[in-house]
Amino acid sequence: MPPRVQPTARQERLGAELRKLRVAAGLKATEAASLLGVNSVQMSQIESGIAGVSEERLRRLAAHYACGDEELVSALVAMTTDRTRGWWEEYRGSLANSFLDLSELEHHARFRWDVDFLHVPGLLQTEDYACALFSYVNSEFAEEDVNRWVEHRMRRQIIIERPDPVPYEAVVHEAALRIRVGGRAQAKAQLRRILELSEADHISVRVIPFEVDGFGGAGSAMVYAGGAVPALDTVVRDGPHGTAFIDAEAQLLRFRTLFHRLESVALEPGRSREFIHRLAKEL
Predict the structure, then answer these.
(1) What pTM was computed for the model?
(2) CA 48 to chain CA mean position, Å
C-alpha cells in the first residue's frame, strides 16, 4: 500500500502512540524497524501516520515494547483495523482537514466536554446562529462556502442526537449567551434550543455567571473528547492560525483538571436552566 499523502489526525495519533510506546521501552526506531522487517524510513512513516500497520504487526510491536496495558493495545488495534468512511468524507476537498478530523474524533468519542466563553458551543448552535457566525467571521467568502460550513456544523450534532448519543457536558459563560451573534429573534431561538437540548439525560449545560468572583479562566475554551481509554483522550483548541489537536499526557491531565475547576464554579444544571430561561424572557 502506497504511503498516505495526507494522513488524518486519527491516523497520526495511532502512529504517535506507537512512537510513545517505543520511546517508553527505550528502543530506537531502527530496532523496531528490524523487528518488523522494514527499513527506518518505513518505520518513520508508520510512526507519523503516513503508512498503516496491520493488527499482527501492531501486537508484535506492543509485545516487544513490553506494553502490559491490554486495554490500550486493544484500542490501538481498533484504530488500525477501523475502515469507517463517515459522512464527513463527503466534504473532503471542500473543507479544511481540521473540520473532518474533528468530525471523526467526535464520532469515536466516549464522551465530549465543551468550554466556551464567547460563543455557544457548536453542538448546541441553531442553524441561524451558525450562519450568522460564519458569515460575520468569513465575510469575504462566497455564500456557498458559508452554507457548506454551516451544513457540516449541523451534521456534527448527530453525535448527541443519534440513538446511542455521546454523553455531553458544556460549560458556557454568561457572555456567550448574551452576545447577539444574530438578531434578537435568533438569540431567543438559540437560548430555547439550549434549553430543549439540556432536557436530555445525556446532555448537561452549566453556566458561569458574570457575578462569579475571582474568575480568570476566560482564555480556557476547549473541546475535550474522551478516547476509548484515557490515554487516547484529545483536546482540541482553536487559535488564530488554525486548530490544534493536543494529546500529550501532561497536557491532557492539565485540561481535565481545568475542566473540572471550571465546572465547579458554574451553576448546577438545574439552576443553569433557570438562568437561561430568564435570559430568554429578557429578550
Answers:
(1) 0.94
(2) 20
